[in-house]
Amino acid sequence: ADRPGPEKLCDAVVNHELLLQPGLHWDSALLDRIGDGHCGDVTIRLAVGGPHIFDFQFYDGTGRPDWKLVPAARGATVRVVNDGFDTGCTGTASPVLFAGKFTMQLGAGATADLCGPDGSGQHIAAAQVVAGADPAMEHSAVTTPTSWTVDQSRDASFNFPPSSIATPADLLAAPDCDPNRSCTSGFVPGTLRGDRAVGTVVMTIPDPVSLRPEPDRGLLVDSLHLDITHREPGGDVAEAHVWISDGLPDKFVCDLSDPGHRLSPSNDFQTDGYECDLTGVGRPYFPTPTGDLQVTYQVQLKNQANGKDAPARSADIALDSVRLSAQFARPTARTSAPSGDILTTKDGGAMHALGTVYLPSGDVKLNFNGENKTRFERGLVVNSVDVSRLPSQADFTPFSLPGGGNYTDRLTTFQAFLGSDTTAPPLLTTRVRFCDVHPEGGAPTLPCAGALGGPAKILAWDPTR
């Protein structure tokens, strides 16, 4: 799926190209910015190996569901091609699937070469998802610290052992001491001393999202959950904090990523659970390259007690377990339900599709702009199509069917109405025979003839009197 750069979306474009791996593309920010021409001239390559599913409202966001590619307003051009095809549509390619409410508009400066494989048989270049599935939330496996480091400040003495000394390595994996108040093992103890002393333990924990088989497909992550079993006995503890201090992808912030997030000190071992709510982020979750998060546990002692000879503050603290998990949904293809024209070309935008474009419940509006760039060479299956400004080229065939001569007598009825009222009797009815181009090299047969199978022939012309 598409993966925007950390701050500047156009950083994802390298040498005027963006390669999209197969999968679900639902983070519209980058693709919208490219489509508007903000990133200059860009070729978007769709890598082979699987379908490319577009659903800009996969997270049920309130933003627009459409992808508008109109870069010419900023003096740019944008091409969408299957990976490895600089000119035309040849070779094996992966189809484009329209899911959810997704629609596409190609305007001035934008072209899309959506290819299908060579050879015989029917192939799909683009299609609606007609029997999709909504995302289902799942719980990840639990991850625990693999290592930790210790720090201290304000003239503190903090003898909490680092992971290189504490054994075994999984001491913080399981909650051994809650609710056992007489627990004597299975935890990591330490003593913090000093007035206003601060002791810090920074733990490295595998990101539970990175444990998925395909972490780079852009999962939908609703929340991270942190459980910490701890003890801070005595009256010298001023406050304690726990937070996710590093490793979250860019823009993923929550209460638990704030260093001011407080933890309630406890005289006995207790487990506190915290939710890192990410439902408002609205973008795919890509684990960082290391695949690790950092969780910081910090304890601060009170100021020196009253009295000249008052002893320094101190506390015997302990960590028993730190456990992290995620609630997520795998990328999926939702049933297509467009709210308007599912595909539009206008103002010079063009699409060339070698495979079939299958949009059975969608409406298509094609403005050819007097040019022959838009072509559907293996058929267009659509609920309705609005065609305008066809080129003045006698042998131009915008819609073709494959089959090596099997479709040489395609009959079509056209009706013309006044305005948009299709309930009244048509002003004109005509019956037309189309003889299609045969991309598979089959020889046309009569009544169609010629290199292109012959021009369209009007068989009947019935104007209303």
How much beta, percentage-wise? 35-45%
Task: Report the mean per-residue pLDDT as an integer.
Answer: 84
Number of strands: 29
Q: How many helical elements?
A: 1
Describe this structure in a few short sentences.
It contains 1 helix and 29 strands. The protein is mostly beta strands and 465 residues long.
If you had to describe this structure to a student in words, what would you say it looks like?
This protein has 465 residues and is an all-beta fold. Helix content is 2%, strand content 38%. It is built from one helix and 29 strands. The protein has one helix at 28-35, and strands at residues 17-20, 23-25, 42-46, 52-54, 66-69, 78-82, 96-98, 103-106, 110-114, 124-128, 137-139, 147-153, 157-158, 188-193, 198-206, 220-231, 237-246, 262-263, 270-277, 292-301, 314-329, 341-345, 350-353, 356-367, 375-376, 380-388, 410-416, 428-434, 457-463. The chain is elongated, with a radius of gyration of 32 Å.
